[in-house]
């Protein structure tokens, strides 16, 4: 008698092939090479070196904390190398979906705001803005000026190459899940409980998104005294980007669970929901962690309202990502 597991095994073996062609190897190489400057810089800092760190930098005030943070970030960027291999090698097609989905969602969420904000900061600076084109928390003194284009340039190359590889991988492995249009999704893809969760996520997104846009527009209410005094165009761009991703996350997930407008492509709504929810959840988590660390400069401690906004951003992103995961699961079952 034929074993009932053989068809599944045969299907797995047949699926575990990567389309030939030069594009994927080139993108894999770009992603890996783009990691090297950041990994090398972090390795120097973890080992006690000060390459790129000027005298008087706030990074030197808390050596133990910075060593731990640098070690974690070094491992996180090294994981990009593993992801690049996973997305381009036959064994990567056999990895369980959830083992790949969360790291890719997190990587997308951490890199997408940088890919968006850093070029915008440079443009604003060229147009006469008050910033210097260096995304992130207050940093005076912080790092030598050459560090930012090297690091953020590498992140942008990583994001473009890894994002393209993941899109190609998803098309090969799960193309049926995000094919078609919203009106063709089964009714169970957006049940009452899921709709309620999506609406709750959209409502929760309103508060932090509104604060982000108000701060980006020049309102200093809710900011600590020191941060309000040092607020410049760089921070305004970051806040505007954060608010935009929150709005996009809420809107795209609502469209998915409501299955409207019927003519919108599923892949468009899912792609926006993936990137935007990851950006809100992971960037909100990062900002919350930074806000809870010891302040590097007196008077520039994040206010309670700022920490609440960061936490709300994080919670909203994870809630909307959960809604997206349910839609993907139900869509996969029906497909």
Automatic annotation (TrEMBL):
Ranges that cross the membrane: 26-45, 65-87, 99-126, 146-169, 196-216, 236-258, 270-293, 305-328
What superkingdom does the record give?
A: Bacteria
Q: Which UniProt keywords apply?
A: Membrane, Transmembrane, Transmembrane helix
Q: What is this protein called?
A: LigA protein
